[in-house]
Amino acid sequence: MNRVSITVPARNGLEHGSSNSGKAMIRFGHVKSFLVCFAPLSAVFLAVVGLLSWEGSAVREKVISDDQRYALEKSISVLRERIDIVVSDLLILSESQQIDAVIAGTASLDQVADEFAVFSLRRGIYDQIRLLDNDGMEIVRVNYGSGIPFSVPRRELQNKSERPYFQLARNAPRGTIYISGVDLNEEFGQIEKPIKPVIRLSAPVFDRFGERHGVVVLNLRAASTLEEVVKSLKLDGAEPFVLDGDGGWMLGGKPGENWSEELTGMPAVIGDRYPKAWESMQLGLQSFRVDSGFYSVQRLDVSDLLLARNSNRSLSVIFGSDQEKSSRLNLYVGARLPNDVLEQLLSPERDTLTIVSTAFIFLIAIGSAAYAWTRQNQIVASFDARLSEQVLRASKNSVVVADDTGTILKVNPGFTAMTGYLPNEAIGKPLSFLRAQRENAEALDEILMAARANGTWEGEVRNRRKSGDFFYSNVVVSAITDPTTSDVNFVEMGFDISRHMENAQELWRQANHDALTGLPNRLLFEDRLEVACGHAENEGHSIGLLYIDLDGFKPVNDRYGHEIGDQVLRKVGERIKNTVRQGDTVARLGGDEFAVIADAVNGRDEAEWVAQKIAASIQRPIEIDALSITVGASIGIAVYPGDCNETIALIGFADEKMYQQKRVRKAKGSDAARALH
User: Has residue 47 been placed in a domain?
Assistant: First the structure.
């Protein structure tokens, strides 16, 4: 800032001349100060704008790439979840009670077909569910049809003994499944029209004595599955596609290209139309731009997808066969953004950059003019203070400023909205007063030390609102040093992630609990049994496993319908849960089967006592509206480690004991009936 000294003389003439000279000097000082400020700032800003315009496309492409990768990862997650469901369905059907009943001679194949039809209708993803005997002959086959499952007449059943899914599953051990690549369904040696892309899965069927009794086969409707997978890839005009391992079009090709090799004998591959894109895919690139557009691609090995979702199961998998095309086991899933679409996505950023640049030049001019009228240090200090205050007030996230000891100096409105504490209730208190646990409060010193050493610290903490509610917050703690005094202040910025945590917990609950009763499902039950047995082994006590199957439940379903049957199952689950101890686990394994893990029992006598209490609670009449329904229960008991020291064998032992009790009851019932006659 130019300093101008103005002398006021006694004479009018000199006064007038001095005044004009002083005004000229002031005007010159304003112009000079304006240029000193405006010229370098404008030069720097224009240089930055030039750099941004040069790098703008790359930055925007990075954003687009990230969006596409996120959508692709979401699609792969959908596919993995679908495969996991299908594998679980296959294992459930291969161990069906109806099939066991047919083997035992107490049920008919028509009942198995009815069970398959209900299963197919509820899932809606299987084109066929079949049961083959030991010779490969279909003995039950349910087709999905046009949304209505139906059982194929026996005269139309076919011999599938030469098919890989039968040959490879027929002699496989228990716990083994076969999975094919994606292929078109064939009937009587001809591709079915309209085409039906399917993935075939099969598993051997064993009775409870370990004897083989055929193979269960699922035909997964691959078209709807793949359509669901690529649905989220239709982002910003992207064109999703699915290719086989050789680049052949399975989904996303032009008319006549999808499955062209199978339908016409003339393969159509992506390399014919987009050779550079196909070359990049084969090199393993996942995001790239070539002359035909921008691509996001993921190569999927069916084996990786399946094994990644079943790494914790005792499951063996057979992939494909020598008769299948190997490329059907490996897929490329991705999306293409054509260049014209990509340019349209990039152009709004350039227009915005021009508008922002003009606005900033105008702001620089205004700032330079203000600088010309005031001293530079006053303007800078005032601007910094206003800017900091505006940032604090405008931010919706919580912002807390603390001194070097962690004592709160300032908070913003976002802090009050998140925690409920007014500024006067928080200022002067340590940051630790927000922490929900003592361990978190004690860790605060370590957090501040890390921020002081590294500049920042980021992580998740559990805080408490003024109302007493707990919430999770993602915080970034920054250490800011005043260069003039070397004093250190800490700035903690955080946002509430409780909803994300709750969503994650809800997803876990849905995956591990039965939708009808709310009880743990088979997956969670087996996990808890493994943990309980481990604790029992370490602490030297016993575990009681009760396998419960309802007696007389099927007539309830047949007579009153599934809605009443569902209410009965819920009532039974509640009664079992109310009968056992709070620390015991009650699970619904499927159908009318329940199981209880009785922790720390004093041998078999106590386990049998618990079983008697459960049986008595189940046998009490169940009142539903005007109905009084009575069901019984057959309960098999196994004690760990007395009966078995391996969890899967323990479940099988309890299951066998349950069936023994059921057979005894049926025999007694038959004797009583004969005595009456």
Answer: no
Flag whether the pTM goes above 0.70: no
Distance of CA 328 to the CA centre of its chain: 26
Q: Which of 468, 498, 528 is the last residue of a domain?
A: 498
User: Is 464 or 254 the better-scoring residue by pLDDT?
Assistant: 254
CB 481 within 8 A of CB 487: yes
Residues 605 and 628 placed together within one structural domain of the fold:
yes
Query: Any residues with CB less than 8 A from the CB of 121 and at least 6 apart, and which?
Result: 148, 149
- Cβ-based neighbours of 157, under 8 Å, separated by 6 or more: 137, 138, 139, 141
Residue 224 lies in a domain: no
* Cβ atoms within 10 Å, residue 68: 24
Active site residue 551: no
Which residue matches tokens 């004969």? 674
pLDDT one-digit tens code per residue, 624-662 = 888 889 999 999 999 998 888 888 889 999 999 999 988
Residue 282 belongs to a domain: no
Q: How many CB atoms lie within 10 A of CB 509?
A: 12
C-alpha 149/C-alpha 122 separation (Å) is: 10
Taking Cα atoms as reference points, which of 560, 563, 551 lies closest to residue 516? Answer: 563
CATH of the domain at 441: 3.30.450.20
β-bridge mates for residue 603, sequence order? none
Same domain for 522 and 486: no
How many other CB atoms are found less than 10 A from the CB of residue 174? 15
Is residue 275 predicted with pLDDT exceeding 90? Answer: yes
User: What pairing do the DSSP bridges indicate for beta strands 316-319 and 176-184?
Assistant: parallel
Q: Which residue among the candidates 84, 592, 599, 655 is catalytic per the annotation?
A: 592
Both tokens of residue 138?
């279909």
Q: Determine the structural domain holding residue 440 and report its residue range.
A: 394-498
Helix (H) or strand (E) holding 456: strand 456-464
Asked whether residue 547 falls in the same domain as residue 669, the answer is yes
Indicate whether 487 and 519 sit together in one domain.
Answer: no
What's the CA gap between 327 and 318, in Å, rounded?
A: 16
| Whether pLDDT at 453 is above 60 | yes
- Mean of pLDDT over the chain: 81
In angstroms, rounded to a whole number, what is the distance separating the alpha carbons of residues 321 and 167? 10
Provide the 10 A C-beta neighbour count for residue 384: 10
In tens, the pLDDT along 46-62 reads: 777 766 666 666 677 77
Q: Which of 474, 498, 522 is the last residue in one of the domains?
A: 498
C-alpha 495 chain-centroid distance:
22
Is 171 part of a structural domain of the chain?
no
Residues 655 and 594 in one domain: yes
Contact between 364 and 379 under an 8 Å Cβ cutoff? The reply is: no
Domain co-membership, 518 together with 492: no
SS3 191: strand
Whether residue 644 is found in the same domain as residue 518: yes
Assigned token pair, 52: 């941004």
Task: Output the pLDDT for position 383.
Answer: 54
Number of domains comprising the chain: 2
- The verdict on whether omega for the bond into residue 153 sits within 30 degrees of 0, i.e. cis, is no
Residue where the block lists tokens 């980021």: 458
Tokens linked to 91: 């294992």
As a whole number of angstroms, the distance between CA 522 and CA 306 comes to 19
Question: Does 542 lie in the same domain as 574?
Answer: yes
For residue 163, the tally of other CB atoms under 10 A from its CB is 21
What's the CATH code of the domain at 531? 3.30.70.270
